[in-house]
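Morning run. Coffee first, then this:
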Amino acid sequence: MPKLKTYQLNGKVAAEQEVPAALVESDVNAQLIKDYLIALRANARQWSANTKGRSEVCHSKKKPHRQKGTGNARQGTLAAPQYKGGGRVFGPKPKFDQHVRINKQERRAAMRQLLAEKLAEEKIVLVKDFADLKQPKTKDVMEFFKAVKVVPRSVLFVGESFIQEGQTLSSDRHEIIKKSIRNIPGTAFVLAGQVNGYDLACAHTIVMTQAAFEELTNLLVAA
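And here it is:
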């Protein structure tokens, strides 16, 4: 099995993590990944845009001018769309039941492929944990980037989930790392149980803890 080096936050190699063969040998149709990402973006929409038509705007029912004798085209109401403040023609309306269902097996397959591509490109960096940060300090994170040769551009930090009563919650142990990276443009933090394929596709580099990598692998490789 291929292995990934696990670093400490000072840049020193702490251990090696085995990568499951099922993750490395992932081979998924590109169309499946495209459909999955499109579905994610579609489901992120609120579908709440709303405009008023000519029958809904608040306007007087009086004609703008008399029917004949002015030389202008006849007009019936100020609520017509050609007038300022008039109704909009074919404007957006709230839509319901627009959710695109994503098959669980397809979702796992797409995420496995996206993760496998990051592994092949050596864009995944494992950290033993974030406990070495005793207080929020952006300088320590930038020094870590320099030590492991990571370009601080579009970096996704992934931490292990804290599960309580069946719900995935963010624990206090991640607050320090989240505060340390919030001043670095393009960086983000997400829990392993909440990461999706869009996060993986958009990230240039993924920095995750050893526990988060194991958790994410178990979610994706599980039957």
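Residues 28 and 113 are 6 Å apart (CA to CA). Good start to the day.
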